[in-house]
Write a structure and sequence with these properties.
The structure holds two protein chains of two kinds. Chain A is largely without helices or strands. Chain A is about 15% helix and about 5% strand. Chain A has one domain. A two-stranded antiparallel sheet of chain A has the order 1-2. Chain B is elongated. The chains are: A little secondary structure, B mainly alpha.
């Protein structure tokens, strides 16, 4: 099964919208969001802050290298895989969730 | 012995199957299928002494087994039908307890299965004195075939690994002669001359890597005798590449894995069936085959086994035997 519910990215793998605040204005290849300062790539978020962070594909809920949760899944921009699987099987719309209207900060 | 003289796949002198017609064979087949269904025969080897108790407990027919020391030397056992009490009776020579699992006991096991064959193939419905000698001989051949198929199912015996009839007969609880006759009827005597390959004596697993020190299915240490198993069982796993990494995630079905991935990107399940070593001083972390319940290097439980993705091997063994014998 192909979980083709990844968020849109440019050809370098940078997200076109900030996963945290939804900002879409980025200058060139900005690595962080200018509004909230969050990363623009789907990094993993290991519990131990000293451990290295890995970049993952935009449909990854978990890091392929260390198994930790990813940024997009942490901010619930990607649905839990069980829900995504149900949506993909029934063909009822995109399997990613829309950003919330209210800013989280 | 006769076995050494044979070069082909069978010896026509001892082939009894050819003497039975198609109707007789289909009668045996149908009777056996019904019998196995009624009494749920799934565990191998079949111990007919225990099977008799199962038949008595099931209560479908009334069966009595008697031991009689004063029987004619020409008979080991006789099955009869007692119409006045609507009951079947098997009278056999006494089987001393110290014979357990020995050659003589295994011979009695086949004899008992033969007598059950007479009962369940319907041979006792017509009294013996009303049958011709030819018919009685055919009945005996049918009962022999019933017993052979019950104790040594074709698919199971042909998948076994053995290098002598002694090994095979011990595994299936029959005499060497019965084994020879069965293999001869199946026209596969050539199997006896093939080099023996390893199989776990406990679970029947036959997948061993050169570095394996433990059986990956049952976790037993692979000492010399542990790989001398006869019965072979195929255990299920998940499709994997040459590095034992799954091709599809067994939990979420994701099939996208990058070259570096060690975990499923969708549900976070490890893509390798790693050893979940519980040793205090060392961590094994060996990537086992996807069917492995235990690490082949240290004998600890594996990732997939602990997560409940692999069924218990004893249950799977029974299901495999049930599927293979009742097909």
């Amino acid at each position: 099964m192909m979980y083709n519910d990844g968020l849109p990215t440019d050809k370098y793998g940078f997200l076109l919208a900030c996963p945290k605040c939804g900002n879409k204005e980025f200058s060139g290849q900005a690595r962080q969001c200018a509004v909230c300062g969050e990363e623009r790539q789907n990094f993993c978020m290991p519990e131990d802050k000293k451990r290295p962070r890995h970049v993952n594909a935009s449909n990854a809920r978990f890091c392929e290298t260390c198994g930790a949760e990813t940024l997009l899944y942490h901010y619930r921009r990607l649905l839990p895989w069980q829900d995504a699987q149900d949506r993909l099987r029934s063909g009822s719309g995109p399997a990613f969730s829309e950003p919330s209207v209210e800013l989280p900060f | 012995m006769i076995i050494n003289d044979i070069t082909g796949s069978y010896d026509p002198r001892y082939c009894t199957l050819d003497r039975l017609g198609e109707i007789s064979l289909s009668n045996v087949n149908l009777s056996l299928k019904q019998f196995m269904k009624d009494y749920d025969v799934t565990e191998y080897p079949v111990d007919c002494f225990r099977l008799v108790k199962k038949i008595q407990d099931a209560g479908i027919i009334h069966l009595e087994v008697k031991e009689e020391g004063r029987m004619s030397p020409a008979f080991n056992a006789v099955a009869t039908y007692l119409p006045e009490v609507d009951s079947f009776q098997i009278v056999m020579k006494p089987v001393p307890e110290h014979w357990q699992q020995k050659s003589a006991w295994r011979r009695c096991n086949f004899t008992l299965a033969h007598e059950l064959g007479h009962i369940f193939c319907g041979h006792l419905e017509i009294p013996k004195n009303m049958k011709t000698a030819e018919r009685r001989r055919k009945d005996d051949l049918e009962a022999d075939e019933f017993a052979a198929r019950l104790l040594m199912p074709e698919r199971l015996i042909l998948k076994s690994r053995f290098s002598s009839f002694e090994e095979l007969s011990k595994e299936f609880l029959v005499s060497d002669q019965a084994c020879f006759k069965r293999m001869n009827n199946l026209k596969r005597l050539d199997l006896i001359r093939q080099p023996k390959q390893a199989a776990c004596a406990n679970c029947g697993n036959d997948h061993f890597s050169p570095a394996a020190e433990y059986c990956e299915i049952c976790g037993k240490p692979l000492d010399g005798w542990q790989q001398d198993g006869v019965l072979v069982v195929e255990y299920s796993g998940f499709m994997a590449d040459e590095n034992n990494r799954v091709l599809f995630c067994p939990v979420c079905g994701n099939e996208e894995f990058s070259d570096r991935s060690k975990y499923c990107r969708v549900c976070g399940l490890p893509a390798y069936n790693w050893c979940r070593s519980d040793h205090y001083f060392r961590i094994c972390h060996h990537a086992n085959a996807t069917s492995a319940r235990y690490c082949e290097l240290c004998g600890c439980k594996t990732e997939f086994s602990l997560r409940g993705l692999l069924t218990d091997w004893k249950k799977e063994k029974n299901e495999y035997i049930r599927a293979i014998t009742q097909r």
